[in-house]
Amino acid sequence: MTTRPEPGDTMPDVAMERADGGTVKPSDFRGQPLVVFFYPKDDTPGCTTENIGFTALKGAFDEAGVALLGVSKDPPAKHAKFIAKHDLAAPLASDPAEGGLADALGIWVDKQMYGRTYMGMERTTYLVDAAGVIVRVWRKVKVKGHAAEVLAEAQKAVRDR
């Protein structure tokens, strides 16, 4: 397992595929704060609620000068359908199957459900400053109210810089 970066560490810089084509990596957002939220799977109840929560607050994130990026292992075509189905505003990226950003962050982990062990994404959110340094980490996120909590922390970080 990879050592998990903590606040004060630089965000690993791994390229991912964007839902609308091309690639994206955390360093593409240098010069502005970034919220990267990792979620397990498109179009599942918790993940849909989380993405809709960030979409509802995207205007406030934009106003604060904070970029958003949602990440899962789903392929770009699935992300595109998910975005269209729920009119999502936050851009989504597909993390590579192996050696991706989730691996570098130590959040692609063994999970268990109904006695079965499998690899899965640990729902985690990172607030990264304009220089690419991790400011805050939310691990094992509970979806309800999460986007608002992240927005408040991002707004505070922008004011305090």
Notes on the structure:
This protein has a single domain, classed as Glutaredoxin (3-Layer(aba) Sandwich). Strand 8 (124-128) and strand 9 form a beta hairpin. It has a seven-stranded mixed β-sheet, covered by helices on one side. The mean pLDDT is 93. It is of the alpha+beta class and 161 residues long. It has helices at 45-56, 58-64, 76-86, 101-105, 146-160; strands at residues 16-18, 23-24, 34-38, 67-72, 92-94, 108-113, 116-121, 124-128, 134-138. Keywords: Antioxidant, Disulfide bond, Oxidoreductase, Peroxidase, Redox-active center. Residues 5-160 form the Thioredoxin domain. Monomer. Pfam families: AhpC-TSA (PF00578). Residues 1-24 are annotated as: Disordered.
Write the layout of secondary structure elements.
Elements: E1 16-18, E2 23-24, E3 34-38, H1 45-56, H2 58-64, E4 67-72, H3 76-86, E5 92-94, H4 101-105, E6 108-113, E7 116-121, E8 124-128, E9 134-138, H5 146-160
Parallel strand pairs: 3-4, 4-5
Antiparallel strand pairs: 1-2, 1-5, 3-8, 6-7, 8-9
